Amino acid sequence: MKTTNQAPAAAVPLSDYLCFAVYSANLAFGKAYKPILEELGLTYPQYIAIIALWEEDNQTVSGLGAKLFLESNTLTPMLKKLEAMGYLERQRDPGDERQVRISLTKSGRRLREKALKMNPVETGLASDEFAKIQTAVVTLRNNLIKSVQNGE
């Protein structure tokens, strides 16, 4: 076993880790959205799924899962809860019975009107800062996904 006389590298403080900055920002988003989510009666993942359906209704479960970066074992129970709440319907695709399509109900579409009337979450960022950070976070996410895929 080889030994060295070098002192161990100085410990990096938690606050200097990018992964911690992203993690703690996500927690802060959850707290900021809490009043809106409570008013809507949704969890944060349910809210994101509903937003994706407002953007594109009548999509497949697999397509929605890809958009949300969720596996079907996480997405399906959430969709079943949203269906039980009356916000969406799940039906087999008549053109391909292997696919399940998700569509918003009237209640699911009305939820958008209610959400739009609520106060938005304030980030405190100017629009140009917001755009730069959003682009940087998306780039970071995509690079991490590529890194994981290349490592498999």
From TrEMBL:
PROSITE patterns: HTH_MARR_2. This is MarR family transcriptional regulator. The lineage of its organism: Bacteria, Pseudomonadati, Pseudomonadota, Betaproteobacteria, Burkholderiales. It holds the Pfam family Staph_reg_Sar_Rot. The keyword Membrane does not apply. Gene3D superfamilies: Winged helix-like DNA-binding domain superfamily/Winged helix DNA-binding domain. One of its GO terms (cellular component) is cytoplasm. GO terms for molecular function: DNA binding; DNA-binding transcription factor activity. The keyword Lipoprotein does not apply. GO terms for biological process: response to stress. Residues 15-142 form the HTH marR-type domain. Keywords: Cytoplasm, DNA-binding, Transcription, Transcription regulation. It comes from Paraburkholderia elongata. It is found in: Cytoplasm.
